[in-house]
Amino acid sequence: MAVEHDGEDPNDPSANALVHFGVEIAEERKRHGWSLADLAKRIPCDKSLVHKIEKAQRIPSLELAEACDREFKANGRFVRHWKWAIKYAFPAWFQRYVELEMEATSIRLFHSGLVPGLLQTEEYARTVLRAGRPRDLEGLVTLRMERQAILSRKNAPDLWIILDEEVLRREVAAGDVMRAQLERLLRIAEIPQHVVQIIPASVRNYHGSFCPYGILSFDEGADVVHVDGFPRGYLLAEPGDVSEATRAYDLLKATAHSPDKSAALINSVLKDRYS
Question: Helical H runs in 104-222?
Protein backbone atom coordinates (compact mmCIF):
# COMPACT_ATOMS: atom_id res chain seq x y z
CA MET A 1 0.00 0.00 0.00
CA ALA A 2 1.43 3.34 -0.97
CA VAL A 3 1.94 5.76 1.89
CA GLU A 4 1.45 9.45 1.26
CA HIS A 5 4.37 11.73 2.09
CA ASP A 6 4.98 15.43 1.80
CA GLY A 7 8.16 15.37 -0.25
CA GLU A 8 9.89 13.05 2.20
CA ASP A 9 12.12 10.16 1.16
CA PRO A 10 9.86 7.07 1.42
CA ASN A 11 12.92 4.95 2.27
CA ASP A 12 14.07 7.17 5.14
CA PRO A 13 13.29 5.44 8.49
CA SER A 14 13.10 8.82 10.23
CA ALA A 15 10.40 10.01 7.83
CA ASN A 16 8.42 6.83 7.22
CA ALA A 17 6.93 4.90 10.15
CA LEU A 18 6.52 1.71 8.13
CA VAL A 19 10.15 1.79 7.01
CA HIS A 20 11.22 2.46 10.60
CA PHE A 21 9.25 -0.56 11.83
CA GLY A 22 10.83 -2.80 9.19
CA VAL A 23 14.35 -1.53 9.90
CA GLU A 24 13.91 -2.15 13.63
CA ILE A 25 12.84 -5.74 13.01
CA ALA A 26 15.72 -6.38 10.60
CA GLU A 27 18.29 -4.94 13.02
CA GLU A 28 16.99 -6.96 15.98
CA ARG A 29 16.84 -10.12 13.91
CA LYS A 30 20.43 -9.71 12.77
CA ARG A 31 21.57 -8.82 16.29
CA HIS A 32 20.15 -12.14 17.46
CA GLY A 33 21.84 -13.94 14.58
CA TRP A 34 18.56 -15.14 13.13
CA SER A 35 17.70 -15.67 9.49
CA LEU A 36 14.36 -14.64 8.01
CA ALA A 37 13.28 -18.27 8.32
CA ASP A 38 14.33 -18.38 11.99
CA LEU A 39 12.21 -15.36 12.92
CA ALA A 40 9.29 -16.55 10.79
CA LYS A 41 9.30 -19.84 12.66
CA ARG A 42 9.29 -18.10 16.02
CA ILE A 43 6.45 -15.64 15.27
CA PRO A 44 5.13 -17.83 13.43
CA CYS A 45 4.41 -16.66 9.90
CA ASP A 46 5.68 -16.94 6.34
CA LYS A 47 9.33 -16.10 5.70
CA SER A 48 8.26 -13.99 2.73
CA LEU A 49 6.00 -11.92 4.98
CA VAL A 50 8.88 -11.10 7.35
CA HIS A 51 10.97 -10.04 4.35
CA LYS A 52 8.20 -7.80 2.99
CA ILE A 53 7.58 -6.18 6.37
CA GLU A 54 11.30 -5.49 6.78
CA LYS A 55 11.20 -3.81 3.36
CA ALA A 56 8.01 -1.86 4.25
CA GLN A 57 6.13 -3.70 1.52
CA ARG A 58 3.47 -5.14 3.85
CA ILE A 59 1.52 -3.78 6.81
CA PRO A 60 2.44 -5.47 10.12
CA SER A 61 -0.35 -6.82 12.31
CA LEU A 62 -0.62 -6.18 16.04
CA GLU A 63 -0.06 -9.91 16.65
CA LEU A 64 3.22 -9.73 14.75
CA ALA A 65 4.35 -6.70 16.77
CA GLU A 66 3.48 -8.53 20.00
CA ALA A 67 5.39 -11.60 18.82
CA CYS A 68 8.46 -9.46 18.05
CA ASP A 69 8.29 -7.95 21.55
CA ARG A 70 8.13 -11.45 22.98
CA GLU A 71 10.91 -12.98 20.88
CA PHE A 72 13.24 -9.98 21.11
CA LYS A 73 12.32 -9.29 24.77
CA ALA A 74 11.70 -5.69 23.72
CA ASN A 75 9.33 -4.60 26.55
CA GLY A 76 6.57 -3.40 24.24
CA ARG A 77 8.80 -1.40 21.90
CA PHE A 78 7.47 -3.04 18.74
CA VAL A 79 3.84 -2.54 19.75
CA ARG A 80 4.62 1.15 20.30
CA HIS A 81 6.27 1.34 16.87
CA TRP A 82 3.32 -0.54 15.38
CA LYS A 83 0.85 2.10 16.56
CA TRP A 84 2.74 4.75 14.59
CA ALA A 85 3.28 2.46 11.61
CA ILE A 86 -0.44 1.69 11.37
CA LYS A 87 -1.43 5.33 11.69
CA TYR A 88 0.91 6.50 8.93
CA ALA A 89 0.13 3.58 6.64
CA PHE A 90 -3.25 5.20 6.00
CA PRO A 91 -3.55 7.95 3.39
CA ALA A 92 -2.74 11.37 4.85
CA TRP A 93 -6.35 12.54 4.58
CA PHE A 94 -7.54 9.56 6.71
CA GLN A 95 -4.90 9.65 9.44
CA ARG A 96 -6.66 12.20 11.62
CA TYR A 97 -9.87 10.19 11.50
CA VAL A 98 -8.02 7.05 12.63
CA GLU A 99 -6.62 8.99 15.59
CA LEU A 100 -10.07 10.24 16.55
CA GLU A 101 -11.63 6.80 16.10
CA MET A 102 -9.09 5.36 18.54
CA GLU A 103 -9.94 8.05 21.10
CA ALA A 104 -13.73 7.94 20.72
CA THR A 105 -15.94 6.71 23.54
CA SER A 106 -18.99 6.49 21.27
CA ILE A 107 -19.25 5.84 17.54
CA ARG A 108 -22.50 6.28 15.63
CA LEU A 109 -22.46 5.04 12.03
CA PHE A 110 -24.97 5.04 9.18
CA HIS A 111 -24.47 3.06 5.97
CA SER A 112 -26.95 2.31 3.23
CA GLY A 113 -24.92 0.07 0.94
CA LEU A 114 -22.34 -1.95 2.87
CA VAL A 115 -21.51 -3.16 6.34
CA PRO A 116 -19.19 -0.47 7.81
CA GLY A 117 -15.47 -1.26 7.73
CA LEU A 118 -15.33 -1.29 11.53
CA LEU A 119 -17.60 -4.37 11.56
CA GLN A 120 -16.52 -6.17 8.40
CA THR A 121 -15.16 -9.69 8.53
CA GLU A 122 -11.82 -10.22 6.84
CA GLU A 123 -13.28 -12.00 3.80
CA TYR A 124 -16.10 -9.47 3.37
CA ALA A 125 -13.53 -6.65 3.56
CA ARG A 126 -11.27 -8.42 1.07
CA THR A 127 -14.15 -8.78 -1.41
CA VAL A 128 -15.23 -5.15 -1.03
CA LEU A 129 -11.70 -3.77 -1.32
CA ARG A 130 -10.82 -6.02 -4.27
CA ALA A 131 -13.43 -4.21 -6.35
CA GLY A 132 -11.19 -1.14 -6.37
CA ARG A 133 -8.31 -3.18 -7.87
CA PRO A 134 -5.75 -1.90 -5.32
CA ARG A 135 -2.04 -2.55 -5.72
CA ASP A 136 -1.75 -3.96 -2.20
CA LEU A 137 -5.04 -5.65 -1.38
CA GLU A 138 -3.67 -7.57 1.60
CA GLY A 139 -2.20 -4.39 3.08
CA LEU A 140 -5.57 -2.68 2.88
CA VAL A 141 -7.31 -5.68 4.47
CA THR A 142 -4.77 -5.70 7.29
CA LEU A 143 -5.33 -2.01 7.97
CA ARG A 144 -9.09 -2.44 8.05
CA MET A 145 -8.82 -5.38 10.45
CA GLU A 146 -6.35 -3.57 12.72
CA ARG A 147 -8.75 -0.63 13.09
CA GLN A 148 -11.17 -3.06 14.67
CA ALA A 149 -8.81 -3.60 17.62
CA ILE A 150 -10.60 -0.73 19.39
CA LEU A 151 -13.65 -3.00 19.77
CA SER A 152 -11.79 -5.58 21.85
CA ARG A 153 -9.94 -3.23 24.18
CA LYS A 154 -10.97 -2.79 27.82
CA ASN A 155 -12.53 0.65 27.26
CA ALA A 156 -14.12 -0.16 23.89
CA PRO A 157 -16.36 2.57 22.46
CA ASP A 158 -20.13 2.19 22.45
CA LEU A 159 -21.42 1.52 18.94
CA TRP A 160 -24.70 2.62 17.41
CA ILE A 161 -25.07 1.26 13.89
CA ILE A 162 -27.92 2.05 11.50
CA LEU A 163 -28.08 0.13 8.22
CA ASP A 164 -30.49 -0.05 5.34
CA GLU A 165 -32.07 -3.51 5.00
CA GLU A 166 -30.46 -3.65 1.55
CA VAL A 167 -27.11 -4.10 3.30
CA LEU A 168 -28.32 -7.46 4.63
CA ARG A 169 -29.66 -8.65 1.30
CA ARG A 170 -27.06 -7.28 -1.11
CA GLU A 171 -24.81 -10.21 -2.00
CA VAL A 172 -21.49 -8.43 -2.39
CA ALA A 173 -19.65 -11.70 -1.70
CA ALA A 174 -20.12 -15.46 -1.82
CA GLY A 175 -22.79 -17.03 0.35
CA ASP A 176 -20.42 -18.32 3.03
CA VAL A 177 -18.81 -14.87 3.31
CA MET A 178 -22.20 -13.18 3.62
CA ARG A 179 -23.29 -15.70 6.22
CA ALA A 180 -20.20 -15.05 8.35
CA GLN A 181 -20.68 -11.29 7.97
CA LEU A 182 -24.33 -11.37 9.06
CA GLU A 183 -23.42 -13.64 11.96
CA ARG A 184 -20.88 -11.09 13.11
CA LEU A 185 -23.39 -8.27 12.76
CA LEU A 186 -25.89 -10.27 14.81
CA ARG A 187 -23.31 -10.89 17.56
CA ILE A 188 -22.67 -7.16 17.76
CA ALA A 189 -26.42 -6.50 17.89
CA GLU A 190 -26.76 -8.85 20.86
CA ILE A 191 -24.08 -7.10 22.97
CA PRO A 192 -25.86 -4.79 25.45
CA GLN A 193 -23.19 -2.10 25.04
CA HIS A 194 -23.98 -1.75 21.33
CA VAL A 195 -27.08 -0.97 19.26
CA VAL A 196 -27.82 -2.09 15.71
CA GLN A 197 -30.90 -0.81 13.91
CA ILE A 198 -32.12 -1.73 10.44
CA ILE A 199 -34.19 0.60 8.27
CA PRO A 200 -36.82 -1.66 6.67
CA ALA A 201 -37.05 -2.05 2.91
CA SER A 202 -40.62 -0.74 3.06
CA VAL A 203 -39.23 2.72 3.87
CA ARG A 204 -38.51 4.05 0.40
CA ASN A 205 -37.25 7.49 1.37
CA TYR A 206 -35.47 8.75 4.46
CA HIS A 207 -33.21 11.62 5.43
CA GLY A 208 -29.55 11.12 4.47
CA SER A 209 -30.24 8.01 2.41
CA PHE A 210 -27.35 8.52 0.00
CA CYS A 211 -24.59 9.63 2.33
CA PRO A 212 -22.85 7.21 4.73
CA TYR A 213 -21.42 9.05 7.73
CA GLY A 214 -20.40 8.67 11.35
CA ILE A 215 -20.42 10.74 14.54
CA LEU A 216 -17.57 10.34 17.02
CA SER A 217 -17.99 11.39 20.66
CA PHE A 218 -15.32 11.71 23.35
CA ASP A 219 -14.89 11.99 27.11
CA GLU A 220 -13.71 15.54 26.57
CA GLY A 221 -14.30 17.84 23.62
CA ALA A 222 -16.98 18.27 21.01
CA ASP A 223 -18.34 15.61 18.67
CA VAL A 224 -16.83 15.22 15.20
CA VAL A 225 -18.54 14.01 12.03
CA HIS A 226 -16.87 11.91 9.35
CA VAL A 227 -18.56 11.83 5.94
CA ASP A 228 -17.68 9.04 3.52
CA GLY A 229 -16.94 10.27 0.04
CA PHE A 230 -15.19 9.51 -3.20
CA PRO A 231 -12.31 9.66 -3.75
CA ARG A 232 -11.88 10.62 -0.09
CA GLY A 233 -13.92 11.32 3.02
CA TYR A 234 -13.76 14.43 5.16
CA LEU A 235 -14.23 15.59 8.76
CA LEU A 236 -16.70 18.18 10.01
CA ALA A 237 -16.20 19.92 13.35
CA GLU A 238 -18.21 23.13 13.00
CA PRO A 239 -21.01 23.11 15.63
CA GLY A 240 -23.69 23.76 13.02
CA ASP A 241 -22.57 20.84 10.86
CA VAL A 242 -22.33 18.49 13.84
CA SER A 243 -25.77 19.56 15.06
CA GLU A 244 -27.30 18.93 11.63
CA ALA A 245 -25.66 15.50 11.41
CA THR A 246 -26.89 14.60 14.89
CA ARG A 247 -30.44 15.63 14.04
CA ALA A 248 -30.27 13.57 10.85
CA TYR A 249 -29.09 10.58 12.88
CA ASP A 250 -31.98 11.01 15.31
CA LEU A 251 -34.38 10.92 12.35
CA LEU A 252 -32.73 7.73 11.11
CA LYS A 253 -33.14 6.13 14.54
CA ALA A 254 -36.82 7.04 14.53
CA THR A 255 -37.25 5.54 11.05
CA ALA A 256 -35.45 2.26 11.75
CA HIS A 257 -36.73 -0.89 13.44
CA SER A 258 -36.17 -1.18 17.20
CA PRO A 259 -32.93 -2.95 18.23
CA ASP A 260 -34.80 -6.17 19.09
CA LYS A 261 -36.77 -6.17 15.84
CA SER A 262 -33.58 -5.35 13.92
CA ALA A 263 -31.76 -8.32 15.46
CA ALA A 264 -34.71 -10.54 14.56
CA LEU A 265 -34.58 -9.27 10.95
CA ILE A 266 -30.85 -9.97 10.68
CA ASN A 267 -31.44 -13.47 12.01
CA SER A 268 -34.34 -14.00 9.59
CA VAL A 269 -32.28 -12.95 6.53
CA LEU A 270 -29.42 -15.10 7.77
CA LYS A 271 -31.62 -18.21 8.00
CA ASP A 272 -33.63 -17.56 4.84
CA ARG A 273 -30.73 -16.78 2.52
CA TYR A 274 -27.54 -18.20 4.01
CA SER A 275 -28.41 -21.23 6.16
Answer: 122-130, 137-147, 165-169, 175-189
